[in-house]
């Protein structure tokens, strides 16, 4: 990604989503979710991560219900650079800020990994529709991490569909080492 108009478009969607999320504005968040593909929300109900596919987002109905969507102050400006990591042994991030690494699309395949482990250890069966939808949301997406401190962070993915950028994944499990 090196065209100025593409960088402008992705920057706008990333900053709009962060602002809408932190102000808990359902309407503005939902405007950034693809109407056909929806959003995947990753969460950790126990030892293993899980996810749910949703068509829309509602701050009053968090996923999971026991883990409310929190807001926090952000004074960080978006940068395009390698992402920080959360280190469980220290409970700290390797760096703080608001960053997206657009040099490489998502290679984590978080949703595929979750489906594989859930199938292997919990005998969960995902139908082809869920597998396809998960793949569409994650493949080719860019990860974004907003972490102004150790206590507060927001992690999501953005992806382009037909020339427009959308938020495709909200990761509520990374940065949390509790089982």
Would you kindly provide a written description of the structure presented here, covering whatever features stand out?
With 179 residues, this protein is an alpha+beta fold. The protein is built from 4 helices and 9 strands. The protein has helices at 4-22, 26-30, 110-122, 128-138; strands at residues 39-43, 50-54, 78-80, 86-87, 92-93, 97-100, 142-147, 154-161, 164-171. The strands form 2 sheets. It has a 7-stranded mixed sheet with strand order 2-1-9-8-7-6-3, with helices on both faces. Strands 4-5 form a two-stranded antiparallel sheet. Strand 7 and strand 8 form a beta hairpin. The longest helix has 19 residues, at 4-22. It is globular and about 45 Å long. The model has no long low-confidence stretch (mean pLDDT 90).
Helix/sheet category: alpha+beta
The string of secondary-structure elements, in order, is HHEEEEEEHHEEE
**Count of DSSP H/I helices:** 4
Beta strand %: 15-25%
What coarse outline follows from CA principal-axis ratios? Answer: globular
Distance between the termini: 37 Å
Overall average residue pLDDT? 90
The largest sheet, given as strand count, sense and whether it forms a barrel, is: 7 strands, mixed
Q: What Rg do the Cα atoms give?
A: 16 Å
* Strand order in the largest sheet: 2-1-9-8-7-6-3
Helix percent band: 25-40%
Runs with pLDDT <50, length 5+? none
What oligomeric state is this? single chain
Number of strands: 9
């Amino acid at each position: 990604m090196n065209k100025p108009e593409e960088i402008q478009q992705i920057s706008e969607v990333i900053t709009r989503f962060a602002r809408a999320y932190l102000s808990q504005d359902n309407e503005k968040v939902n405007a950034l979710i693809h109407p056909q593909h929806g959003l995947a929300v990753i969460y950790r109900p126990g030892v293993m991560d899980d996810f749910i596919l949703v068509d829309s987002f509602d701050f009053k109905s968090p996923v999971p219900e026991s883990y409310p969507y929190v807001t926090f102050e952000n004074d960080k400006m978006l940068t395009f650079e390698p992402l920080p990591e959360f280190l469980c042994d220290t409970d700290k991030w390797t760096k703080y800020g608001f960053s997206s690494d657009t040099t490489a699309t998502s290679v984590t395949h978080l949703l595929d990994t979750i489906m594989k482990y859930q199938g292997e250890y919990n005998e969960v069966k995902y139908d082809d529709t869920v597998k396809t939808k998960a793949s569409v949301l994650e493949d080719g997406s860019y990860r974004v991490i907003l972490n102004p401190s150790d206590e507060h962070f927001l992690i999501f993915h953005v992806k382009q569909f037909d020339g427009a950028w959308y938020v495709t994944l909200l990761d509520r499990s990374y940065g949390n080492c509790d089982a």
